[in-house]
Fold this protein.
Amino acid sequence: MFTQISGIYNNGSIILDEKPSLSKPVKVIVTFMEDEEVTIKKKKPLVAGFGKGTVSYMSPDFNEPLDELKDYM
């Protein structure tokens, strides 16, 4: 079976656009396509508190012990 995933080769490493769903090591073939213009996407750095205010509801018994874990307490 063949799976194709695009990516970018930059400075000795390959950055894939998505993670392959493989469970064991497999052989790969790398094809370089120099005709296309490539732009490298930079990830935005995480900022402390970026998720503040995103939780809209929390159950009143959120901190109560779970019945499924009574055997371990």
About this structure: Residues 8 and 39 are 9 Å apart (CA to CA). The two ends are 48 Å apart (CA to CA).
